[in-house]
Amino acid sequence: MSAPTTAPAASGWVRGLCWSAVALEGYDLVVLGVVIPVLLRDPTWALTPASASLVATIGLVGVMIGALAVGPVSDLVGRRRTLVATVVVFSVLSLACAAAPGVTTLIVLRFLAGLGLGGVLPVALAMVAEHAPARRGNAATTIMMTGYHVGAVAASLLGIWLIGPLGWPVMFALGAVPALALVPLMLTRLPRDTAPARGAESARRVRNPVGELFRDGYARPTIAFWVASFMGLLLVYGLNTWLPEIMRSAGYPLGAALALLLTLNVGAVIGLLIGGGVADRIGVRTATITWFALGAVFLALLSVRLPGVGVYAVVLLAGIFVFSAQVLVYAWVGRLYPAAIRGSALGAASGVGRLGAITGPALGGALLSAGLANPWGFYAFALVAALGAVAVLFVGRTREPAEVAVAAEPDRTTS
Asked: Is the pLDDT of residue 53 over 90?
């Protein structure tokens, strides 16, 4: 499959709509954390911390399965219709969560919503890779991922403002309505020419896109990307879940610990804004290795009690490198694999990475329970980042398919 030639206006619509879809994913994945404290205190729900954890975990399992399954589907039937379908599925099911009568129903709905939600990211990544302006593909990917953090912040702020006066169901409804409003724009503005090309070789690939991830020299990069993605998402979810408590165990007051979590995520957005541009200039392989390695350095440095603004500076730098390292992995996957299997490659990397998303909070919790969070929590997460760098080294030096660079060739003279 050769990627479609994309006019500048169409490329802008692809990036904007994919950013919006990812923002809605960020909102939906965070909204449960906003709602659970209310449900835990509602006697009609009889929700316990254990059942609340099950709701959260089963949603992530659905996201993992959705990512693994939907990537190959997009290779078979095309990106546009697959992206629209995933947005519709998770929007309708998220809206249904607002009417859930009890915890069992909520668990089922969160799992089913996760199936659609998990498919959004790999399809959006594939579309952006195929329609980004020439020589700016890595930046287009990392900038798109800022949408996730915008959605997460929106969920937090709306929860503060609305959940008290309007109740928890409004949070699910607010996430679903904008998503459904996007569907008409996706149907009219996303390019139609993203289905696999015809021809004997493409037909063979499309029949079993997952199998192609292990042929023609792709086996080693595929496994290496899976390991790197696992490590990257372990860091993202582990740090977001436990950084405040680890900092408290290191002697920082609660207010400072929460401020450091905010600082970490501010660094994440900065890293996404600059990481892709750096990768476009020095090469995505060099940038990804550097990002993981520097993330390891700054995480280990947090084991030292730093004075004043020093700890904020180190946490900011850790956020810059740790969070965007994972997205650079996605950017590299999107540039390396040919279009006929690109959705499968991104779906597999995202799906396997979700195992890291589940493992990260468990690792942090285990260290805290054992009384080892300070300093060994910092060293453990630093080791994970170092392993991410090693995994990327095993990808080797690669060349992206020419079709990705050609995809946005008309943009070369207008950007």
From this structure: no
